[in-house]
Amino acid sequence: MKITILSGKGGTGKTTVSNNLAVLVKESFLIDCDVEEPNSHIFMAPEITEEEEIRTGYPVVDEDKCIHCRKCADFCHYNAIIAGAAATMPLKDLCHDCGGCQLVCPAGAISYEKKGIGTIFSGTSRFGSRFLYGQLYTGELSGVKIINRLNEKMSHSDLVLVDSPPGTSCSTVAALEGSDYAVIVTEPTPFGVSDMKMVVEMLKEMNIPFSVVVNKAGLGDNEVYEYCSEENLTITGEIPFERIVAEAYASGKLAVEISEEHKSLYRNLWLNIQKEAERSHES
Amino acid sequence: MNIAFCSTGCDLNSSVDERFGRTTNFLIYKTETGETTCIENRARTAKGGAGALAVQQLVDNNVSVIIAPEVGPQAMDALKKFNITAYNQQGASTVKEALDLWKEEKLSLIEEPGNKGLHKA
């Protein structure tokens, strides 16, 4: 079972929700797929036992063989090759490693070389559970390859909680791949609602059942509740905005570590999510 | 020789555009005849790699000199590779002014890429 925790925008509380649940749900396995900005490891403080560098290919042009037909540049959708009568120049940072330029080159002048784009870290969290996260190198464009590799590292028999990248980017779609259920974390503000709508559309398009968790409840307005009721979306939980939680978070501690009340809040949330996930798969 | 300007319009009285990769047009001036050609910049709406696509259009139009506000690191490398010299348009408000300053050799060369666009932090 793979449950992905996502949000319309950053800062709504994906990490809060996924990490607190990961601590409570003993048999779970947390994966931080927000490879551009991973931060679950700050709370999980894992002992890393394995590191894997993820690499991507980029084209190299053999100028002696190149006949300057410009087919490669015409083909490349990402403008990663500039071609003129005098030279053909690949720009490796723009390349998406599709291999198309190599295929269309009639002169066999293009070969692919590899470069690292990020690292995957695996280990055990300070709570004793399995934990994995990816980190995209600064300046790299796309974390999709790293997320795909993270997906390969989980098996369907695991109970996996995924901390997804925010929004509806390629990276988010990659993190959702193979999810049985999704949880949208939102906040009760106009921005929270507006950005959440796109996520709702994406999940419907991908046919992944989901429910909503309202974080920072008590702030903002009622728009999120009105929207959920209009759209018939289930709210599986509300997490109140509390200074004590924010202070703990800022020092790398989770809400479930503060008190029994906070623990039971997340325990209830988990029960609701489980119930909804089962219900959605029965219907 | 063809000189390209980053231009908001399609004639010499147009204002210079404050962007390179996402400039509205490239106005190309042929030094031999004084003719101009206006190229609508395809890179303007590119999702990524605007600088690269901008250079590709300069290459396609046999441009030897580009007058621009600044040039990103990827485009800078590409301009060098294709022997296109870049000059800074600063001080000029219209393409005509920039052209006159270039003729008087008063424009400075862009030798270092600007801090915008795709670059390794």
From TrEMBL, chain A:
The keyword Isomerase does not apply. The keyword Lyase does not apply. CDD domains: SIMIBI_bact_arch. Residues 57-86, 92-115 form the 4Fe-4S ferredoxin-type domain. Keywords: Iron, Iron-sulfur, Metal-binding. One of its GO terms (molecular function) is iron-sulfur cluster binding. Pfam families: CbiA, Fer4. Signal peptide: none annotated. This is MinD superfamily P-loop ATPase. It comes from Spirochaeta isovalerica.
Automatic annotation (TrEMBL), chain B:
InterPro entries: Di-Nase_FeMo-co_biosynth, DiNase_FeMo-co_biosyn_sf. Pfam families: Nitro_FeMo-Co. Residues 13-103 form the Dinitrogenase iron-molybdenum cofactor biosynthesis domain. SUPFAM superfamilies: Nitrogenase accessory factor-like (SSF53146). This is Putative Fe-Mo cluster-binding NifX family protein. It comes from Spirochaeta isovalerica.
